[in-house]
Write a structure and sequence with these properties.
The structure is a homodimer.
Chain A: H1 21-24, E1 29-33, H2 34-50, E2 54-55, H3 65-73, E3 79-81, H4 84-92, E4 97-100, H5 107-118, E5 122-127, H6 130-142, E6 147-153, H7 165-176, E7 181-188, H8 198-218, E8 228-231, H9 237-246, E9 254-257, H10 269-280, E10 292-303, E11 306-309, E12 324-329, E13 339-340, E14 345-349, E15 354-357, E16 369-373, H11 378-381, E17 386-390, E18 396-401
Parallel strand pairs in A: 1-17, 2-9, 3-4, 4-5, 5-6, 6-7, 7-8, 8-9
Antiparallel strand pairs in A: 1-10, 10-11, 10-16, 11-15, 12-13, 12-16, 14-15, 17-18
Helix pairs in contact in A: 4-5, 6-7, 8-9
């Protein structure tokens, strides 16, 4: 068996350019609308700056270097990432400052990061355990490099991070014994807080981060002119920003916000979070807009009231909500007209198929295209190696590669 | 911003060869053990042949051309796929016969398939609607190509496929009006049958496929010497095979089985299905063995009884069951020793983290590696662009690319 050539088709990829999403691209395909994307980039940058904070968008959401570039061009301080491989991938695509909001574990991962630091990457990771601090200290001393670390604060029953001051003190002491490590600040993630008055708990957590960094600063153990204080996912970034701002961190510290999903927002989970943010601050100017949709064909109409869509778990996120039907593009209209179908409902999804409950006499045909929104964009991006940036007329403006 | 070079790291990829999974590869990484893989390839081929059936393994499980090649070398008749892009990807990697167990919808998808047929691909797709038949007939007539189609039979409340004989008759009549279409058989998928005596319903469904193809053959509407009759996912392949065998299809028809998950099997869902198959046939020789595992580091031990693993929804399937901890490789042993941890339990998974409930005084350290099994392999393969084929000592024998 010999492959007929080097030509390689990938799903969601236009076979040629210029391309129109509905005329040229084999569906299903994932599309990012350029107008709301551009709006979101500017909106969040302005929000962070308005609160005296730097923005380091979480890049794990999209893993799309073309979006990292737009985020940095919009003014982002750096890109947040979750793993060593994500870090070196971003660096290979021109990102010069990475905040890895995770522990760096395992020799091969440390080697990747050390090589990137040697090649000029400004890099930060978090620590929450003495053993890991010793490992990192020994490894980076061997490599004759300095590793910037932030102590992670966690919450009881949460994910990683120190639960109390005694754990922080033990870490500070161990870091001080490791000449290769530079303690440069404090990191947290408020997204693990659940139950009770969550907003109050998020504010209190933000204040704990502030108090901890001030205590460390007073102890003279921080090796950075303006130590970093960072938190915030995509749900509570307003409360973290306000807490940092009220504490006037901007003067002597580097407060950093790390939302990721804002870049394309969504149609349900973060749409709801945005409503809550607006309710907390009625004076807030503007808001994030959904930019990510997945387009797929009606594949079969086997029974009244049921449409099978050529769209599955391989193509779109299905947690916490199943894909949300938005618009139908009738096949006979050639993609020039669309009809609102937001009243329809996805009832089930398999690897390659979605089940749509539709009105019994719905105007729908096999070959029609449906546009779907998502609830939580992270688990849609990772289904695609190519995401199409489109304009409002569905012309493909840019093919964005992802690197999961 | 200029990327420093063409070098590109991907997750799960060894930085050099030869490589050892635990010493050289940045974890997490997905591994296929070669011994059970080779065993499974032979076992299923022998099973199909023993029942007088051809094997067209469902390739959507892995989308790994290296595994397609092994399946074909083991004797498979062709590869089953789910979409046009999967089809042309397989063809570009040397697969010459594809059974697309799905409807072909949309001009760009039809174009991909037509180009592949022109380039020599032997291709079959399924139809279940008159409109789609007309579209295909017109498109392939324009291209001056013949398209082989199978009529799909479905079940009430199921997915695609004709629900009754009247729908089949309407399709047969429409296909007869389309000179570009060749009706060559019948297709079904018994995996949608649920509730009641499922085994009996699967047998009855298999018999319905047999009766339908015989009726069509008697009507002289099938344009293939030995018409195709095909069904079977990975759960009920034994009952479909027996039903086809008992009907003595092998003499005048081409019975085709299409299991996909068998190639690497799993540690729970299909392990359970295998137990049921053995119970239905106590004389069955041998059985499938789990071959796919994902390896990841212990990242944090923030509280007694809780380990955070650097492994998330981006790395491993979590449906219908969360990842199954199998073995722990203590860091100080350098990967040479492993300890059974199958009593531990994953309690939660996020995009990049898994939460493990462990005994309060468990022997575990940050930097230890855990091997996890899965329940349903399809949604683990699609998390990886590279899957490592390893031997029992965890030496990397082959890097297998996937093409989702």
């Amino acid at each position: 068996m010999v492959a007929p050539g080097n030509w390689e088709m990938e799903k969601g990829m236009p076979p040629s350019r210029p391309a129109h999403l509905l005329h040229d691209v084999p569906l299903p395909a994932a599309a990012v609308f350029e107008a709301p994307l551009t709006h979101n980039l500017a909106w969040m940058q302005r929000f962070a700056e308005g609160h005296g904070a730097k923005l380091a968008p979480h890049g794990k959401t999209t893993m799309a270097p073309a979006l990292f570039r737009r985020q940095l061009e919009a003014g982002a301080w750096g890109i947040t990432l979750a793993t060593a491989v994500q870090t070196v991938t971003a660096h290979a695509h021109g990102v010069d400052r990475v905040l890895m909001a995770n522990q760096l574990v395992g020799r091969p991962n440390m080697t990747l990061v050390a090589d990137a630091i040697e090649a000029g990457l400004e890099y930060y990771c978090v620590v929450d355990g003495v053993d890991n601090v010793r490992d990192l200290g020994a490894f980076f001393a061997d490599r004759e490099l300095t590793l910037n670390v932030l102590i992670e604060l966690g919450v009881d029953g949460g994910r990683c991070g120190c639960r109390n001051a005694a754990q922080v003190d033990a870490l500070v002491a161990e870091i001080a014994r490791q000449p290769a490590l530079a303690l440069v600040g404090i990191e947290g993630y408020e997204g693990m807080i659940a139950g009770g008055d969550e907003a109050a708990a998020v504010r209190a957590y933000g204040e704990r981060l502030v108090e901890t960094v001030r205590t460390l600063q007073a102890s003279d153990v921080l090796q950075r002119e303006a130590p970093i204080v960072t938190a915030s996912g995509s749900k509570w970034f307003d409360l973290i920003a306000e807490t940092f701002d009220r504490a006037e961190l901007r003067e002597h510290y580097t407060p950093v916000l790390r939302p990721g999903c804002y870049v394309v927002h969504d149609h349900k989970l973060y749409a709801g979070a945005m409503e809550a943010i607006k309710a907390r601050d009625p004076g807030l100017e503007g808001e994030l807009r959904p930019a990510l949709e997945v387009f797929a064909h009606v594949q079969s109409l086997p029974e009244p009231g049921l449409a099978i869509i050529a769209l599955g778990k391989r193509d779109i996120g299905h947690e916490p909500d199943l894909p949300l039907p938005l618009r139908r593009y009738p096949r006979e209209a050639g993609g020039t007209v669309s009809v609102d179908v937001s009243g329809w409902r996805t009832t089930h999804i398999m690897d390659q198929h979605a089940f749509l409950e539709i009105p019994e006499h719905a105007d729908i045909a096999v070959g029609d295209v449906l546009a779907f929104g998502t609830s939580h964009p992270c688990l849609t991006f990772d289904k695609w190696r190519r995401v199409l940036c489109v304009d409002e007329a569905l012309a493909v403006k840019e093919v964005m590669t992802t690197h999961f």
